[in-house]
Protein 1
Amino acid sequence: MSAPVSVLLGDDSPVFLAAAATIVAATPGFELAAACSSVGQAVETAADLRPDLALLDASMLGADPAGTAQAVPAASPRTFVVLISADPRPAGGLPIVDKRSLSPALLADLWRQRPTGGTDAEEAA
Amino acid sequence: MFPGAAAAEREVPSAGPIGVDGQAGAALARASASVSAWLARSPLGGIALLALLYYGAAKVGYAFGFSGPIAAIVWLPVGVGAAFLTVGGLSYWPGALIGDLIANQYSSLPVWGAAGQTIGNLIEVVVIALLVRRIMRRRSPLTSLGGVAGMIAAICTGTAVSAIVGPLSLAAASGLSIAHVPHVSWTWWLGDTCGALLVLPLALAWSPGAEIRLPTRRTFEAVATVALVALLSWIAARGIGPAYIIFPVLALVAIRFGARGATSAVFVSVAFVVWGETDRHGHFSIHGLSTSVSETQLFIVVAAMSSLVWTALVAERENAEQGMRESAARAFTATETERRRMERDLHDGAQQRLLALALRLGLQVRDAPNPELEQFMVESEEQLNQAIDELRDLSHGIHPSVLSELGLANAIRTLAGRSTIPVKLVALPTSRIDADVQAAAYYLLTEVIANAQKHSRASSIRVSVSSRLAGLTVVVEDDGIGGATESAGGGLRGIRGRMELLGGTFAVVSPTGVGTRITAVIPTRTL
């Protein structure tokens, strides 16, 4: 049994952040690493904690969510970034999920379907 | 640099007659601007310049025979002096004094009479300049009816001073029989009024910084109009036709070419008419005053005043239109800002709260202790999801954040992808478009496509959005049952309201059984 998947949450709505934290806590094999309410805080925390998974609110990321989100893997290459949105639409190659469908099952699915390769190789090194 | 220089490059002529008259006008404006700069540095030079111009204007009158030593058909120096003091400042008054003193024909006038006449002339130009400057502090003497009336009153008052003081001092110095004074005064007054009415508005219209609108890109029309003014003036001057045949074309110039065109046209046609007058009756002399002199003077006064009034009326109408366009644009921007704020509030507030609730509820649904409760929770979840959908659509309708994120073309693609009737995108804009115009186009498309889905029973919808000369052009066609109407409170009426706020056009053609075609043109903002 490996260590739990550490999750960083980023959303500028405290109400939603709290609910999402509940979901992570309720997902077996996952643990909440940090809950951040701004992009800057999320990037800084990601650099410190190097979480496995980061769920970032697209609207928090501004006009170019995918571009802004790149700061997280730049700070912590092992982190798999997923955008969440109240109104999901294609976002430059990054996976994006509807906020309302966030559930333990979806978290587990996302983690299972993460691209392997770069991250694992780096972990091995 | 005039702001209009950039306007000359604009593609949209519907922007209205804003700007200056191309390169010649800009060059002239630069020239007069550098003259004013020079004047500001050397006041003595300004006084000398005024004296020279004043003297020159008097000499022109003598040379062409429309001025005599006493009175004139048209006394141009009063216009020159009043214009210089009005535009440049009252402190240049010694220039008018010097100019008048050296212009006096001492050979045919008693010295004291000439001195009295000069004092009258000086008071005249100072009074006019003082009064017109006072008017200009509140409004333009050319582009408002009140301003024009004030300027005409100022001119009549100032010239009355000279027309009373001049003949009386000549009479006192025995240069003029007292019995002739009323008649000479009348001619004097008309002649001075003509001179002031010709030159002062002309100078004000062409002085730098005058808030005058002149159309651009109408060179051909300008040339044709000048030719027409010259031809009709010549016909009037030769006595081939009556002088008043010039009036329609003067009115046309005032309407089409504003204050600069109108004042110039009046000057040109008066020059012809005065030339015709002196050509037929010889050099002007107060002793051979004929009725035709008075008629010529009255013609000039009436022509100049009418032209000024037309110009002011046209300018007032244009200003009112401009004001309405600006206030409509302000109203639109205000509603857009409000919409953005509301969308933001909905998104940050209620929407996040409902989503959070959905997550929490979703966690519990699986763990319900009994089937009834589970059923209840599943239904609650469905209703909650509907509420989230409705809120999302509502906030899209208020202000689609998708626009700022994806741009109009991608937003339209997303919209087309969601439609239940296949949407064929014939054309999409490629260039950047003003946010308000984008929002209006997107709003129109969401409404029209939603309408088509609800009512048209169409099998396909064609959408074309393109940037054209007149603005962003949106065409939506479906092959449904047609019969769409704009009813009060309906979606189409709402779109029309929004289009009209932006100064755009909106047309619905929907014959029964043929389909519906909606065309809208949203002007790109030029305010």
Protein 2
Amino acid sequence: MPESTVAAVADAQASLEAVIKGEVLRMYQEVADSPEAEFHFYHGREAAEMFGYDPEWLNQAPKGAVASFAGVGNPHARSALQPGETVLDLGSGAGLDSIIASWQVGPTGKVIGLDLNPSMCAKAKAHAEATGTTLECHEGVMEKIPLQDASVDVITSNGVINLSFQKRRVIQEMFRVLRPGGRISITDIVSAKQLSQSIVNDPKLWAS
Amino acid sequence: MFALLEDSGFQRVRSAVVSGFRFRKGATQDAAEAYGVKAVHFTARKPDIAS
């Protein structure tokens, strides 16, 4: 392929990624700002109950964190978090999963959120404080996790890795920041068939 | 995703379909089913230094 063509393809890819990143930010901001709205995916308490979240967790968590929940499963079901562990919640959103993790690791543990959107980090921290727990939250991208090598025991994530154009890079970053013997418990969307180019190139469908 | 985890060095990779997952809107759910879209729970472990 001629060099000019390679450059043009790379430019088009970068442009599409930027548009999709904007759409992802818009979509999840909308869920957080207008949780009463109807989306094509289930969200809020209805979704959390569908995935088997302990109703007691949902009663104890701040209403705003529960209402903005937009996960696709229950990563806590197999995370086996232990007191004192350090947990990274990739794509922490309004903080429900981070707060639940913080209850499990207790005061000797630590939960670190990571989100593309700084206002979501602010919301997550406020929600955590409302429950008497502390959450460290970083604005950043999962393709370049702003943490040191081998610095966390467990990574949880709920429906965000599928949003990345660079999934291999995300997983390599997860591997890098985990301590030896560390583990992941992630729920995400996968497709058995290759999606059509029209779907891949549609920012709204990608973001959803 | 399963292969990506193994390729990246993770061990004990396990996956289980999230049974309750579905889209709210019928048309979206139909399209998702046509493409085999599902929610999956993955667990895996980074090897110990010694292994």
Protein 3
Amino acid sequence: MNVERGSLPSSFLSGAREGFISFLPLSVGLVPWALVMGMAMASTGFTPLQAMGMNIIVFAGTAQLGTLPLIAAEAPLWLIVVTALALNLRFVIFSAALAPGFRGVGTAKRWLAGHLLTDGVFATCLDKMLHTDDPHWRLGYYLAPAVWSWLLWQVFALIGIYTAGFIPKQWSLEFMATIALIVLLVPMARVRPMLIAALVGGASATLLRNMPLRLGVVVAICAGIAAGFAAEHWEHKARKS
Amino acid sequence: MNYDGSLWLIFILIGLATTLPRASFIVLGSRVTLPSVLQRALRYAPAAALAAIVAPDVLVVGGQIDVLNPKLAAAGVAVATASLWRNPWLPFIAGMSALHAVRYLVGS
């Protein structure tokens, strides 16, 4: 069953509306992040065309910020690519978790959905994507926040490119991105195994921060998952006995 | 610094390195199914990943763990407002205010 061409089914639109509404407040966090990204690319010496080219082709904040210093230092190509890959490895996990939510959706739309996947969209959409039957509704619920993120990312990066140097650094606008991640995390951590997964993930990433290529983040995610899973198992056993 | 045409090759390769992990399972879909144990375990991925990104950012200052820094205080305020009230804008207002208030108080 594929979404037909030309006419958008009403369930696609109602899914899109709901996805957009639940994501809108979180998307504020993208604004300073995109501004900072634009400023960083401009101060690396990219022309506006090159900077927007990177922003559109790559569309991945951490990978873009992480590879900029390497590009500026004329690091070997393989190191740049491996770094980008390591910074985005967590998305293999996200992609696998979301995959069942795309049953009934065509391949081209899956590629588009994959390219547009971000941390915020993942955290917003996972639950509803896995617990809704209608593929049109699910695709709408996913694409509305995803496309909105893309638009914000491009527009505010462009503004950042041209305003680099005007916004005082001490405003620390980039901290809004951290707050956005906290806003996503808090409701998840209301369930005890999730809280344990978060605590172990956070502590491991802090302790392993000096691992090369930021692999510590990947190891920490795995440790957090294992801890959460173990906690769930243990709670289940405790309830039975 | 001036960049030549190879910059675009770099962008395309970084683009592949970031899009392929994201698209992987979404595109493969039902052709590759993960065992249900793994699927249950993966439910913990978002919480673990978000914490793994946030924690070092608010706990580490200049390479050292510092539990008395303005960012951590602001993060604490953001967590508290997000747990107590449903208003989604409040953590941003309270968190940013806390960050600047604490910085002002400690004079940095």
